[in-house]
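tRNA-uridine aminocarboxypropyltransferase (Pantoea leporis), 234 aa
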Amino acid sequence: MFENAVLRLRAQRLARATRPFLARGNRVIRCQRCLLPQKNCLCATIQPQQARSRFCLVMFDTEPMKPSNTGRLIADVLPDTEAFGWSRTEPDAALLAAVKNAHYQPLVVFPASYADADREVLTSPPLTGKPPLFIMLDGTWTEARKMFRKSPWLDALPVMSLNVSAPSRYTLREAHGEGQHCTAEVAAALLEQAGDLAAAAELQHYFARFRHAYLAGKPHHPIHALEEALSSGI
């Protein structure tokens, strides 16, 4: 059993918690690695990949503790992924060092509409030069916007604004707006466009398995009624 940066961050967050963290479905007996119900554990199916691209997850407070979080899937597939908790006033020194790594081109993954007019914006990952370091702001949409606005150490970095054409299949949380995708879906699209095809395919497949296993543990989720209706032709 191997760990990853998100699991380490989760352990740190739990260690300093002053009261138990009670996520939805907290009565379910879960695997403490993949956070899925034990009967649906996917740990044995994880297949790490190599990629030119790197990821740095900046996670809002309790995000690494949530079973529905998909940033953890990126770290499972790409073991070099780094993960840090976000702080507006005291950013982690290791995080600041990671985004200044001279061997990589740091890119803040966020919609171009939120970038200032004079900020550099890319709409596709660079295929030459330094490998990209995709900085993902991982939280709810409201939390991600707050991190984007209130992280001055990000302001000088280019924005990577990716258009994901396929509709989101996340459904584990309510989307804030139409066209929004979860962290793992965006990462898979970035990998594919960056030419890391094997890693992109594995992340897509792993996300599909995760989604299915997660929803299997929530028999009353509305998606089950929808899928049943579609399969019966209603």
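Confidence is low (pLDDT under 50) at residues 173-178, 221-230. The chain is about 30% helix and 10% strand. ok done for today
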